[in-house]
Amino acid sequence: MALYMFNLHIPVGFGGLSIVAYILHQPVLDPQTQALSLLVIDVLELLANLFLLNSTVRPEKRLVDIFEFNLVERNWLLASALGFGILILIVFLTSIIIDVLYGVKDVNNPVLKEMLLRSDISKVACIIVYCIITPILEEVVYRGFMLASLVSTMDWKQAVVISAAVFSAAHFSGENFLQLFVIGCILGCSYCGTGNLCSSIVIHSLYNAFTLLVTFLS
Asked: How far apart are CA 211 and CA 176, in angstroms?
């Protein structure tokens, strides 16, 4: 996990756009270029992450084992629907607390809104990044790999809390830490409850889609 965080996620996730701007000789990327750059960066990070995990996984296991697809016994679709509903409710409540502490914002992410409004191309790029690539990437790392590793050494509730805290801290957003922590806990509980990573991926994807819609309409 430390190898991923310091050698891959932080440099690529937080410095990728700066590298693109340097290559294109543009001090500030326009919203469409930024959206397309995010798409390329996230795809590359996902591929690199899967390669890294596949290289470090124990010989007796396969990387695909973390998905444990078992629709009949696990009923992960029902868990996904329930988890998403609970997530929206709790995030709404925590949003009230955050508004009290930090004040109400007209737009939670103005940069994202600019990308969504720029063009159809940037809109599609944002949807792919936030609703497909990012959920798969983060769930594989924080739930499929990190949480699963922690569960093997401690109580699953403690493992969920620790993985959620790391997940939240990795976003480097102080004012959103509480919400991200809550999201991480719900995603972790979903994964532990179903034994299926598809459940947390679906919840994560639906939540990001909801966030995109709210940002677009705000």
From this structure: 13
pLDDT tens, residue by residue, 54-103: 776 665 555 566 565 444 446 778 888 888 999 999 888 888 877 777 66
If pLDDT is split at 50, 70 and 90, which confidence band does 7 have?
low
Closest CA to 184 of 134, 130, 143, 131: 143
The helix/strand/coil state of 113 is helix
Task: Find where tokens 């309409």 sit.
Answer: 217
Task: Tell me, yes or no, if the pTM score tops 0.70.
Answer: yes
Q: Is 3 exposed, middle or buried (0-12, 13-18, 19+ CB in 10 A)?
A: exposed
Whose CA is closest to 191, among 83, 29, 44, 86? 83
Q: Which among 17, 183, 16, 9 has a CA at the least distance from the CA of 89?
A: 183
CA neighbor of 87 nearest in space, from 4, 180, 21, 153: 180
